[in-house]
Amino acid sequence: MTSTGAPLSILYVDDDVQLGALVKTYLERDSAEIECEVTIETTPEAGLERIRSTDTTFDCVVSDYNMPKMDGVTFLEAVRDHRPELPLLLFSGEAPADVAAEIVRAGLTDYLQKGIGTDQYTMLVRRVEHAVEGEGQFDPETETELDGVGIVGPDERFEEADQTYASLYGYDPADVEGRHWTELHPTDEVEHIRTHVLPVVRGGGEWSGRSRGLRSDGSTFTESKLVTALDDDRLLIAVSELRESDLNGDD
């Protein structure tokens, strides 16, 4: 519900008609957390027409990823061009690591992976509420260069890491998966992350800045990093190595 007491108005775009109907049913009828009204469109083009219409006002837009002619990230970027203040969520069957870099670069508010059963709709309700309240978003203006992306699970171990992410630390992706995130940082940096980074992220925000990474050969390097929460207590980490010229501020 908005600050005026009116239900949240949500636009949901998905070419799967049956799934769209389920999303509408669960968000409108079974939500105990927020009261909302859901408008469904089955194509990004129709969704953009809705957004551009002066007769329609939405509080949040949720989109699938794989759709004909235009994917969900491209659609949501087009929405942002017209309505930059709107919270934008991707509700997709894609694995987080497969679309993570696109999500962050596009400045989307949040991402939730589609699952099996009704829990995914309960989680979607929470994500919509979280997005509308404005508690954090993937910021495309961050100074972080998104060279590599990794996903850390609730047990604080890597579920996935792309080739670039793994190679920054001297590993192959298969070697990173299953490792605890602390194994990729020197001891003093681990303490800093636990004290200053994780409380911010787990409180619903995001953290970006510099930290130090630990390579497999024992050497360290300065990294530019963004950490933000995904669904189910997972963390998305985007990293790039800062060269000497970057540290000195040279062109």
TrEMBL record:
Instruction: List, for all copies, the residue spans of the domain called Response regulatory.
Output: 9-129
Show the Pfam families listed in the entry: PAS_4 (PF08448), Response_reg (PF00072)
GO biological process: what's one of them?
phosphorelay signal transduction system
Q: Name positions with the PTM 4-aspartylphosphate.
A: D64
Instruction: List keywords of the entry alphabetically.
Output: Phosphoprotein
Q: PANTHER family, from UniProt?
A: RESPONSE REGULATORY DOMAIN-CONTAINING PROTEIN, STRESS RESPONSE REGULATOR PROTEIN 1
| Protein name (record) | PAS domain S-box-containing protein
* Organism listed in the record: Halobellus clavatus
